[in-house]
Structures are given as structure tokens and as C-alpha cells.
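User: Here's a chain of 114 residues. Predict its fold as C-alpha cells.
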Amino acid sequence: MPRSVNNVASRAKRKRILKLAKGFFGRKKNVWTVAKNAVEKGLVYAYRDRKQKKREFRAVWIQRINAAARLHGMSYSELMGKLKKAEIGLNRKVLADLAMNHPSAFEAVLSKLK
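Assistant: Prediction complete.
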């Protein structure tokens, strides 16, 4: 009995990986074993960095809120404490957007706290 191999599936798998490797430099884009390793590593980084992106944006929002609050004589921690006490349910993303793009609205929020 002749040996049976599923070449269609193997080829499809290789094509899928090489398609993901498009844009990589050197042999990483067209040599199967090198491309496979590069793509797997890239997918690991992609998964990890989707989580890190959230952390980094939160840090940026906090810095922006702190800078805007200090212009009005208040620290970040004071501002967040007063917001919680006043039961104003604005999250950091919205507060940072107000601070950057709508300073008058941010000032209105601060005046409500004082």
C-alpha cells in the first residue's frame, strides 16, 4: 500500500504561516523554519502586548489628569478622592480626554468638587 500524506493541509498550513510572516526581514519572510519561529514569537508578543497596552494607556491617562489638576491647584490623588466622595462616575479615560481636548469641561468638573 502506498504511503498517504495530506499534502493539501500541510501546504495550507505553511502558506498561512508564510502569509503571517509577510513584511519580515531577510529569511524570516520566506524560509519555512525561520518564518515559523518568527511568527510564533510575534504572536506571543502580540498577546502579551495587548495586555501591556492597557497598562500603558492607564499610566498616560493618569499623567494627563495629574497635569491638568495641578494647573487648578489640586493633585491627582486629591482629585480622585473627591470624585469618589462626590460619587461622580467618570473614569480615567474620560477625565484625560476632558483635560486634553475640553479644558472648560474639565474645569466644570473641578468646580463641582470644590
